[in-house]
UniProtKB/TrEMBL annotation:
InterPro entries: NirD (IPR017881), Rieske-like_NirD (IPR012748), Rieske_2Fe-2S (IPR017941), Rieske_2Fe-2S_sf (IPR036922). Keywords: 2Fe-2S, Iron, Iron-sulfur, Metal-binding, Nitrate assimilation, Oxidoreductase. This is Rieske domain-containing protein. Residues 60-155 form the Rieske domain. The keyword Methyltransferase does not apply. Residues 10-26 have a biased composition (Low complexity). It comes from Streptomyces daqingensis. PANTHER family: NITRITE REDUCTASE (NADH) SMALL SUBUNIT (PTHR40562:SF1), PTHR40562.
């Protein structure tokens, strides 16, 4: 059984980097971006499914399912201030873990590479290459270390 991570971790304190672009107004999570046709999504009038994450206080929409590229991740800021890494594996399953790499303290796991070992989906940190099980959050290279796992659903 997957443990659920409550939002009791302090919010990320990240200052914008020099030359960073300002955030775009209106995001898919807010529902203000209309569906656009693409090779992955089909016609614009198709139903856009939302990926929701349970943060301990309730369900929060983080993005549309069609924007998740299989094998890649995206970062999401949950309402409680915790950063999450949202992944869609090549089989179409959505996995959500904490975005903070416990070995470096950097919020980078959403940029990691997805793979599988013995049928177990994992993400490899882009910095030190530690692998984290996407179902349990356990580090495959150091079993005493783990990242939070969040429940998700698609609606």
């Amino acid at each position: 059984m997957t443990q659920t991570a409550p939002c009791d971790t302090p919010p990320a304190e990240a200052a914008p980097s020099p030359g960073a672009r300002p955030p775009r107004s209106g995001t898919a999570a807010q529902g203000s971006t209309p569906a656009r046709p693409s090779a992955r999504t089909g016609p614009a009038d198709s139903v856009a499914h939302l990926v929701e994450v349970y943060d301990g206080a309730g369900w929060a929409a983080v993005c549309r399912l069609d924007v998740l590229v299989p094998g890649r991740g995206v970062a999401a800021l949950l309402p409680c201030g915790t950063q999450a890494a949202v992944f869609r594996d090549r089989a179409g399953h959505v996995h959500v873990i904490g975005n903070r790499d416990p070995f470096t303290g950097a919020y980078v796991l959403s940029r990691g590479l997805i793979g599988s070992a013995g049928g177990m989906p994992f993400v490899s940190s882009p910095l030190l290459k530690h692998r984290f099980d996407l179902r349990t959050g356990r580090c495959l290279d150091d079993p005493e270390t783990s990242v939070p796992v969040f429940r998700s659903r698609t609606r």
